[in-house]
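Tutorial, part two.
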Amino acid sequence: PTNHCQITMLRRIAQKNSGPLICRRAAKCNNHDARHVTTSVSYGDKKTSYLRDRDDGALTQSSERYSSSGAALHAVPAHHNFIDDIILRERSNDVVNPFLNRDKTPNDDGGFLELFKAISTLNNRHHDFYPTLSMSMNLPETEIYAGEEEEEEEEETVTSSGADIEKAETKLQVDDPPVQDTVISLSKRLDKALKESCVKSVLEAFEQERASSENELSDKQLERIITFLADHDVAMSFEATKYHAQKCNAEGRMAPLFLYHYMMSGLKNCFSQNEVEKLVLDIQEHIIEEYSDGKKAVYKYILLPQLAQTVARLKYNDCARPLVEYFLDEKYPLLNPDIHESLLKTAWRPPFAREDWTPALPYHRLLSELVACGHRPKPEVVQRVLHTYYPYRDLDATTEILSSIQQLHHYEDHPYNYSVDCGTLETISILVSKRGSIDLSLLIIEMAESFGYNISESMFEDVILSFAASRQVPQCLGALVDMETKGHVPSREMLRKVAKKLSYDDKRLRYTQHILTGNDNGNILSTATLNSLMMGYGMKKNIQAAFDVFDSFPELGLKRDSNTVTFLMEILYFSTKQRFGRRLYATDSLRPEDVNDVIGEIDIVLSTMKEEDIEATRHFYHEYVRLLCSLGLFEDGKLALEEAVSNNIKLQVGSIFLLSVQCAHRGHFDMAKDVARLSVAAGCGKQPTLIRRINNLQNQALGVWGKTKEAIDEQS
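Running the prediction step on this input gives:
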């Protein structure tokens, strides 16, 4: 006995020990083919077990088998795979029982048969009155099981009459033992397998259900199979989901949505990316095939984005990309914007990615779709998407992202600030200007103005170069004029790039000159535009046309600037090289008349600078010295550099190197060293490399290799 109720029952039985105590018990029945019934009869200190064969109904006696051993099958209908244990005590004097005489032994087969008939009758009679009472007792070790331990009830005395025995005998001869239903058997085996977390047994139960023509398992049991297998075998969980969906579809209903969520959550248990790819493809095909008609398409609109979200969170972006592209191409309605935003959160760029690296998902399309439906994602998510596309080689994607940001910025009913920093806008502008994306360059200018930034010189130059790269000459010249109107001075390098674009074709140069000198040229005519045209002619080696443009400045009411005279000096250098060649190592000098022609042109430029008070720059001195060196006028070049140093103009290192090396090549080593010493005064610092090169040229000219004493003294 294990509780108070059992002890009380034992005491009562001990006090009423005037008759035999008959106990029938059946153990838990897991084997549906059990063939025996065990009946235990206890009298005094003797105990005998009788086995009833299920097939032929014969009774066999065993003095060694107890009721607690073996798989028992009761004659009473089973409930939940358990046979109710009933303890019957017979105290009636109307029935003559062979076991009432203590002198008799329980080996009397005839007496036991009468007793067994009475027990069967009483069991059938009282089974409906005690459906929850299950008690068993085996002496000397007695166990009492009560349905409700809180209530102590009096033990009911059951008597059997002769009529009851006759009815029991007739019933035993006519009725066959009941066979358990297969549905209950499969259900209980499934419940046991789920309780014990036995994957193999659960799979066997599902395969038996799928192979059966009858639906033996209920919807709840199939749902339990799906949720259980999602954590152990996601592929079979998907198969169970498909089976359940087909079953529901045949009955004119839809499978619960949460089952797909459970099944998708099991993708984290996959071991390889190939397994995930195959499974995701199968799930996608199933969803598209199963939910494509009528109102069922809502499942497709919900499940495919959720599947892409699950795969993206597992870092399998290669598997998620086809899904995202599919529902974006099919223009699925956006039912859950949070899924799109969670996909945007997966955007990232590896720190050491190559320049041709592309994002794993079409984040620009997701962002555009999200903004178009009126959703406001968080600013940090938007900025993350923007920086993922660095270095912005995909112009369409960059344009779409910036357009979405601008649209978000125009909304006033949200507390977020979607402003992009000016440095990022300038970086994008510089990188895309080389590819000629005009729309993107103009969008950057517009966004900078809407964010309250001042349009920088760099942004203007990027727009101008974009127009020049796309051969839109009027727009390019108009942007140059706007740049000067805003107070910015176009750089020399930018004007050279525009001139290079214009010089690709003679027709383009003539067209540019035509629109600049025409009547309707107010919005495109400026000093910078004429400088670009003049430099374009110079690059085409059309010196006469370049001087014609130079002479047209006063006629058009424009003032020449430092870029004008610098470009003209560079054009004269091109002309000199074309006419006479470089002749750096020539022993004979140029003809005096050729040199005088170039000097006359140089004087025109210098006089113009003096008349119009144009300040010389270091770029001008560089072109001036280079032109003089090509003519062999090294002394004049040295004087020009000394003049620049006296005017506190910081010279280019290339100007000093050019003049010094060419003087050394012509044998003017003292002059070369004097020019090299000007590097410190010109703001270029000491140049020991230049000194060593001059010494090497001098030693080479003297036929002495290595360092001489004079070179060592000079270096010290």
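Residues 592-611 form the longest helix (20 residues). In part three we will examine how such features are distributed along the chain.
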